[in-house]
Sequence to fold (152 residues):
Amino acid sequence: MYDTEPYAAAVEVHQPISIEPTAPHRAVELSTERGPVVWVPDAYGRMVPMPKHLAPPPMLRPEPRDLTPQPLLDPVAQRFLGAGIGGGALAAGVGYGVGEAISAVTGAGSGALLWIALIVLACRMPSRTLAARGGSTVNIRKAVIKRNRIYG
Fold:
């Protein structure tokens, strides 16, 4: 009824490994001939064996950090800030002092120097002119008399 002839050639069995005893013989490796093996993690987190001379160097433990609290401002910044504030106060004080000195010189020029000049002139006035008048006193009286006349 069915013809199996066309399907007979389509079915073949393939053996991926040779089952014949002609496989090459390998030399026996003794455990003392191989170097030490270490287990290291691979890219996927699995532990794989690796010869010790090919393994990456072990990671060194980092030194412990200093966890003491640090100042709010850096000490160098504090010095710069103090120098700036001190310099500003110094400049303000010098400016105030120079202003006071100029004000004093101006006041001396308008007030005290005028009085000093008058005293010097009074001292240099010859005393003969005061004594030459003979010490007499002259009084001058001026009288104005007005009379109203009505003509009329």
Q: What stands out?
A: The chain is about 35% helix and 5% strand. The mean pLDDT is 78. The longest helix spans residues 75-124.
